[in-house]
Amino acid sequence: MAAAARRLLSLLLLPLAWTRPAGCTDPPGGGWLAGTVPEEERCTVERADASLTYSLFLQRFAFSRPVILRGVTDNSAFRALCTREKLLAAFGARPVRLSTANTYSYRKVDVPFQEYVEQLLKPQDPARLGSDTLYFFGDNNFTEWGPLFQQYVPPAFGIPGTSPAYSFGIAGSGSGVPFHWHGPGYSEVIFGRKRWFLYPPDKTPHFHPNETTLAWLHRTYPALPLAERPLECTLRPGEVLYFPDRWWHATLNLDTSVFISTFLG
Questions:
Q1: For position 6, what pLDDT does the model report?
Q2: Maximum separation of any 2 CA atoms in the chain, in Å
Q3: Helix count and strand count (H, E) for the chain
Q4: Domains in the chain, please, with CATH?
């Protein structure tokens, strides 16, 4: 098992050692498809940079409200391994477990990673229910994907009494997960853009658990009074969102997005 992991790690890291011809670069966006889903008019989630101290994080955000962090980690090496070309080369034949893109994600389907990327990773059909939409997030095989996850640098700020667990995903433009809640954690975008909608624990959003976030954005969001709208913002590569315990949140991938969450359980 250890030998297999070393072989996979060498396959992932070998492209980084190549000397590229002059003018040759990785494709824009890592080779993942750009989308046309719009961003919000104004980001309403507070932002912080690398000057944020751990004590201030605990005091202002850890137990009370979300924050977007920028410049707190450097995952450029991990990002270089997550291009479409490199992930297909390393994991194309390996199975991945897909979940339905609804609140409870009851149904699971196993397919080869290459089949998911080449046949199923498409922009969201606005007429399709979340319960009929398959989505790759979580349910990662940490033995097979471990060499990749070892290259990820998580945010340094932990929550006392918790331990981190990773959830890696890739999803098409317009896809996402409708409102749900769980424990605290972080989410970082590696490629693409991901729009977030968040409500505090005492403010249950209006949504149907089988409706996609895209459908909710088109049907429900425009009619919400300003006072009832969620906190919202779009994450770009290199940005990390922290969400506190039990905060409601829904996600919407504006492009084909590669992302990783760190759950603090």
A1: 52
A2: 58
A3: 7, 12
A4: 47-264 (2.60.120.650)
